[in-house]
Write a structure and sequence with these properties.
Largest sheet: 7 strands, antiparallel
Helix content: 10-25%
Radius of gyration: 54 Å
CATH class of the domain at 212-357: Mainly Beta
CATH architecture of the domain at 212-357: Sandwich
Number of helices: 3
Shape: rod-shaped
Structural class: mainly beta
Order of helices and strands: EEHHEEEEEEEHEEEEEEEEEEEE
Number of strands: 21
Length: about 350
């Protein structure tokens, strides 16, 4: 203060304006200060003990102290981008040996919360998570897979593996509708998907299942020669098992058969005036390179351009017993006599072979 005077060991004279104030003994002043400090400490201890005033149990000051703020509302200041400026930050530590309801903990890697008697890790989107007994409302599913589902790519959608369905769980009405009339549902080969089969394909499946070999071929419009055989099959395969093959109008049987039922039908058409005697037969090559007419396979008819009432269809069926492997067959026809021009009707020729194998 201004106007201070010399202080000796006994007194402290003060003079603010040049006039001396009361002189106080230094020892008395120190005693009063000490008493005030004692009173302040006592008041602070009393304040700490009075939790109804501040709501804090235990010491107010101290980094290692545990505080109970159960009757207080805490508002945190806003954070900022600088280091150490988060509004709330947990130091990593060891989780409680026994979970306590309401606890939030951080072990340096994960946060944990204990809403009751069980501690739970707070899930994140950056690591694999297991969701047990959870209901997801309208989720957007990316890629995942397990024993019953296959979402192995983001387009997997509702792909389900077969184990996801119980036996007899899918009603028939949930299957795909049949696209065409007069179709059967079945398979056309081992490992193939279910498909819509025509009647011929269904019959072929049935015959194959019985161990029967089969073939059916069509011919087209062919003009018959006079006095020599004309091949009537044009190489159109309707259906055939692996035992039979058709190439260059020749049917080859791959393996020996116990018996074969052969049925053919040829529709003839007289294109000009005149008459003719026509024969249709099956020739056989017993793997020697020479074809000969099979006994019982020939069918003859007469055609007359001026008489359309005459039957111009040749139909025949017979059994062929025990041919050997790699035997070859041809369906042929010729004009045996007469001057008429004769041709088969387009799609009017067919041959059906059904055989039982001894292999």
């Amino acid at each position: 203060m201004s106007g201070e005077r010399n202080i000796d060991s006994k007194t402290v004279p003060f003079d603010k304006t040049g006039t001396a104030f009361n002189q106080r003994d230094v020892q008395s002043v120190l005693e009063e200060v000490d008493a005030a400090l004692v009173t302040g400490v006592a008041n602070l201890a009393s304040h700490e003990a009075d939790t109804s005033t501040h709501g804090v149990s235990g010491a107010i000051v101290g980094t290692g102290d545990s505080q109970d703020l159960s009757n207080k509302k805490i508002s945190l200041r806003a954070g900022s981008a600088g280091a150490g400026e988060a509004p709330l930050k947990f130091a990593s530590g060891t989780s409680l040996t026994t979970p306590e309801a309401g606890a939030i903990e951080f072990d340096g890697t994960d946060f944990f919360i204990t809403p009751g008697a069980t501690r739970y890790r707070i899930a994140t989107l950056t690591r694999p998570e297991t969701l047990s007994a959870k209901t997801l409302s309208t989720p957007i599913i990316g890629s995942f897979s397990n024993a019953n589902h296959d979402h192995s790519n983001s387009n997997g959608g509702a792909q389900l593996s077969s184990t996801a369905f119980a036996n007899d769980a899918i009603p028939y009405g949930k299957l795909q509708n049949v696209a065409a009339a007069n179709r059967f549902l079945g398979s056309v080969g081992a490992g193939a998907d279910i498909a819509e089969l025509t009647a011929l394909q269904s019959i072929a499946n049935l015959i194959t299942g019985l161990g029967v070999h089969y073939a059916m071929y069509y011919g087209g419009a062919v003009t018959l020669a006079s006095g020599s055989d004309t091949d009537l099959l044009l190489g159109t395969t309707v259906l055939a098992s692996s035992t039979f093959s058709l190439a260059s109008n020749v049917i080859t049987v791959a393996n020996a058969q116990v018996a074969m039922l052969v049925f053919y039908s040829v529709q003839l058409n007289a294109t000009v005036s005149g008459q003719a005697q026509v024969s249709v037969e099956i020739t056989q090559d017993p793997n020697t390179g020479t074809f000969a007419v099979l006994t019982g396979s020939r069918k003859e008819c007469c055609v007359d351009a001026s008489n359309t009432s005459l039957d111009r269809n040749t139909v025949n069926g017979f059994f062929l017993a025990s041919p050997g492997a790699s035997y070859k067959y041809k369906l042929t026809g010729q004009i045996r006599s007469g001057a008429a021009t004769v041709a088969t009707v387009a799609a009017g020729t067919s041959i059906l072979i059904v055989g039982l194998s001894n292999a």
